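1st attempt posting a full record on here, be nice pls
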Amino acid sequence: MAAATVLRLQTIVSREIAATETAVVTVGKMTAGTAINIIPADAELLVNVRTYEPQVLERVLAAIGRIARGEAAAAGAPRHWRWRRPRAGSWSWSSRNPGDTPSSAT
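the predicted structure (as tokens):
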């Protein structure tokens, strides 16, 4: 599920952002599991988003949430997300705390 999510996140800029606008979505780190022969119960993706305009940022963040929820639904996984913004322009996502969304993160 995490790998499929990364693949879909990489399509946001090319499919949803106009050529006249600027956005960069980078999945800089993916962490899941503790051993090669055990399916992990959760995964964490560290995603960096860079834009010049706030409305482009909002569209990118909405796309990230939509893709994460869609991949979870396709895999039959529960939708428990945690969004946090460690520094300006960056968001990380994991499946640990239910109820959090990008707009409610601090």
